[in-house]
Amino acid sequence: MSCDKQTRLWSRRDWLARTGYGLGAAALHSLGARAEAAPTFPNFQAKAKRVIFLFQSGGPSHLDLFDDKPFLKGRFDEDIPPSVFGGQRITGMVAHQARFPVMPTKYSFSRHGRSGVALSELLPHTAKIVDEICLIRSAHTEAINHAPAITFFQTGSQLPGRPSMGAWLDYGLGSLNENLPAFVVMSSVASEGTAGQGLLARLWGSGFLPSRHQGVQFRSSGDPVLYLSDPPGVSRERRRAMLDGIAALNERLYERVGDPEIETRIEQYEMAYRMQTSVPELMDVSGESEETYELYGPDSRKPGTFAANCLLARRLAERDVRFIQLYHRGWDHHGDLPKRLPVSARDVDQPSAALVLDLKRRGLLEDTLVVWAGEFGRTPYAQGDPKPDDYGRDHHGRCFSLWMAGGGVKAGHVHGATDDYGFNVAEGGVHIHDVQATILHLLGIDHEKLTYRFQGRRYRLTDTAGAVVREVLS
Q1: What is the share, in percent, of the chain residues with pLDDT greater than 90?
Q2: Of the CATH numbers 1.10.600, 2.60.40, 3.40.720, 1.10.357, which one belongs to the domain with range 42-229+289-472?
Q3: Partners of 459 in the β-ladder
């Protein structure tokens, strides 16, 4: 083959390749434009600018913490009536039980504050903020096991693969601080040492949204964010030059293929560079006052504890991070509940209350929505043989309790109620999709309009359901 002929062949191949890239880029750009097309948010005046979600992984017992049922005290070891039990789905943990005996709580309840809200003796610090919170006693979900239930609360679907709530908010509202991620995640473990259910990254993932919307997990030891520090021998100037070179190459590639993930890669590199300054400043709590440490409790000085993470959540809120997700594990009390529940409650009670008080005194509670919730509650019947001072409870999604504070919700208010057994919702039921719709509403978003087209369908956080719980709005 002559040199001229080979040149002509290579030119033809090159032309075909470039034409293919061009058509592909045009198609990708068109698809991306359709997928990203969304109404301008917020849709209306927002009450909240940011959310701090205190997620209690494992299912806190509403009957031992938030929902007083004196009716049960004289019915220890009686069977739950069939009329109450109904068609309740049960888990494999209790499928072998021949009966489902009533298990009253061993903890006393008393009323607190001007609102007179009854809470368990295990929550003395939450009791001090009852006039600041909105307690929902009628939440419910159809999920009965941890992974689907947590995934459902965080993403609106029991199946993995959907965007998380924080990712939806970043997609719809964007960031308020260009030097920190819009969506930050921190996790803690119960001080008793039981890790509890695993927390997978999909819970703060972006699903089918562009990956730039996924949450960024902060660690409690070493570098707060992996690979954020420069390698030994690499100066700040050399890193800047390296990023500029990589960005130029990525921009050329984007011009050829039009893949929006290339843009995400460029943005993430730049965010990481800015975070090299902003994150160390954020994590340096040495300037916090003694009074602040006393407010959050002694564990606030121990990195990785729920108390320390609550303090960091306040610092993130001050810096206008949009969605701050805290996980606390260790609430899966199938057995030894009287031994283990007080530990979990002690871990989170003072820091949760302190966070609300700290936000309020700094003028941040008014536009910060704080949410305290687990994926479901626990059963009014005992798992295994009931003993007055030694019992466990299984998963229960028919009804459970959660609370919100600030950000446009009614303070000192109780919404909904359960039946005498704490088994079913009696009035004012609030489905998980209703909780999600209400959170979005407080941020100025119509939950039916925040959508993303994927695989021929428009998806949303609340799927095809959900209604704003207007009774809890201030």
Answers
A1: 70
A2: 3.40.720
A3: 452
